[in-house]
Amino acid sequence: MKPLETNRLTLRAWEERDRPFFHRLNSDETIMEFFPFRRNRAEADGVMDLMNEEIARSGFGFTAAEIRETGELIGFVGLHETAGLPGISSGTVEIGWRLAPEFWGKGFATEGARAWLDHGFGPLGLEEIVSFAVAGNGRSTAVMERIGMTRDDAGEFDHPSVPETHPHLKRHVLYRLTRLKWQAPQ
């Protein structure tokens, strides 16, 4: 995959040097507030490898996001094919992000997501992109709204991967964006 660039970010495939930071993204209590699990280093390495396989296979995935000027890794932003979610057809492409807290509130998730939407609706030719988050995750849903997505109230679902031991994390809200809406003049 050729990296995508924005004014401030480079969105690229994962590299070996990213493994410690990727582990932090998957184990830090603050970052993982809306997830029922924390990954150890070996588990995080395995997920990073799977992400790179998806990027190599499809030309997109949850890619590393780094600051262009410094090369500092801040998290990930990207597209991913869904599978096994209630009311969402397998293969539907979702957009998502996860950043380290020191980079929250600076517009990086929004900037990276817009670049991926341009790529998804442009070169990839997607007709629709969705996003979903735990119902109480206001930071993520605010990004969804800033990038022009519309909440699909009828599409709310209980995430099948969230165990019954974490009922407060089961309910997810769904947002959608079509290519026609994305390309419409603002």
Using the CA coordinates, give the radius of gyration.
Answer: 16 Å
What structural class is derived from the secondary structure elements? alpha+beta
**Count of DSSP helices?**
5
Can you tell me the residue ranges where pLDDT is under 50 for at least 5 consecutive residues? none
Strand adjacency order, main sheet: 1-2-3-4-5
Order of helices and strands: EEHHEEEHEHEEEH
**Count of beta strands:** 9
Could you walk me through the main structural features you see in this protein, from its secondary elements to its overall organization?
With 186 residues, the protein is an alpha+beta fold. Helix content is 30%, strand content 25%. The protein has five helices and nine strands, in the order ββααβββαβαβββα. The chain has helices at 19-27, 41-58, 108-121, 138-146, 179-183; strands spanning 4-5, 9-12, 62-67, 73-81, 93-99, 128-134, 150-151, 157-158, 171-178. Strands 1-2-3-4-5 form a five-stranded antiparallel sheet, sandwiched between helices. A hairpin with a 3-residue loop joins β1 (4-5) and β2 (9-12). α1 (19-27) packs across α2 (41-58). The radius of gyration is 16 Å and the shape is globular. The two termini are 30 Å apart. The mean pLDDT is 96.
